[in-house]
Design a protein that fits this description.
Elements (H helix, E strand, L loop, with lengths): L6 E2 L3 H5 L9 H5 L5 E5 L5 H9 L4 E6 L2 H13 L5 E5 L5 H4 L5 E7 L17 H10 E11 L2 H12 L3 E7 L2 H4 L11 H8 L5 E7 L3
Parallel strand pairs: 1-4, 2-3, 2-5, 3-4, 5-6
Antiparallel strand pairs: 6-8, 7-8
The chain binds S-adenosylmethionine (SAM).
Length: 212
Amino acid sequence: MATFPHVFQPKFDEVLQQDFELKGKWHEYFNNNHPIVLELGCGKGEYSLALAKKYPENNYIGIDIKGARIWRGAKTSYEEKISNIAFIRTRIEFILSVFAPEEVAEIWITFPDPQLPKRRSKKRLTGHRFLNLYRQILQPNHHIYLKTDSRELHDFTLETLSERKAIIHRKSTDIYNDFPDDSVLGIKTFYEEMFLKEGKPITFVDFTLLNE
Ligand SMILES: C[S@@+](CC[C@H](N)C(=O)[O-])C[C@H]1O[C@@H](n2cnc3c(N)ncnc32)[C@H](O)[C@@H]1O
C-alpha cells in the first residue's frame, strides 16, 4: 500500500487533532479543477474504479478503513494507469480533517454495513451524525447516492431525510426493475454481487441536503 503514489494512509494523530496535509488541496493533487467524488466504505473500490473510467472529467477518491480491501482497487487502477482516482485509508468519522468546506461534489455510499441493532444506529452512514459531517464538505448543489441491499437501512435513510431539509431526486426499492438500463446504477461491487446471488433486491436513494 505504501508504494502506491495514489494511496494515502494518514496516521491516527494526523486526522484526530489536526488536518491532513492534503485537506483543501485535493484539486492541486489531481492537477485539475474537476469535481471530486467520494466513495465511502469503498471496499475493493469497484464503484470508484468503474466511475473513474467512465467519467475522466471527474476525480474519484475511495475511502475505507481496511487496507487489504483498498489494495485491490489501488493495484488495478495503478496497473491500468487511471489518473483520476485515489484512495484514503481512514475512518469516515475523520472526514472533516481530510476535506475542506465545499471541496467535494458528490458522495457514493455503496453497501455500507447496515448497523441494524438500535444501539448501533449512531454508526449508520446515513444517520444525522454522518449527514452533518458530509454537509460540511459538500458543495451546495451536491448529490449523495446510497446503494444498499438492506431495506431497513434504505427506509431508515428516507426517515432520516424526512426529519431534515433535503431533496430526494430518485429512489427505488429495486433498481434492476425500476432503472434496468441505467449504466451507472448497474455498476456492481463485490458485496452487490454477493447480495444479488442471494436474490436480494438492490435499493437506491439519490438526495441533496439543504441548509437547516
Ligand atoms: C459491506 S462493505 C462494502 C464494501 C464495498 N462498498 C462493496 O460494496 O463491496 C462495508 C465497507 O465499509 C468499510 N467501513 C465501515 N465502517 C467504516 C468507517 N467508519 N470508516 C471507514 N470505512 C468503513 C468497511 O471496512 C467495509 O470495507
